[in-house]
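User: Teach me something about this protein's shape.
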Amino acid sequence: MSTAQPVAQAAAAPETTPRQRDDPAKVRDAAQQFEAFFITQILRQVRESSQGPHHDPSNDTATSFAEEQLALSMARNGGLGLSDVIVAGLEKSR
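Assistant: First, the predicted structure itself:
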């Protein structure tokens, strides 16, 4: 007779509560990613609304990538302050 636990039970991760998974660094990162997404949408709308009748769509991919990188950089360096508001709201709700 074997006293070894079944593989599925032995490999199971320890149970965690939702509070244990609320790592402040992960919460801040998610809030910054959301703010970056929001800023990207703003930049995209501004660009699309300012395009004239002679718009060249061949630049759209590069411009979209640049907008995303700019938005991410802005969000990680303070941005609009939206990520701070999100983090503060989540910390309050704990």
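Now, about its shape. Residues 40 and 66 are 10 Å apart (CA to CA). The chain has a mean pLDDT of 83. If you'd like, I can walk through any region in more detail.
User: That's plenty for now, thanks!
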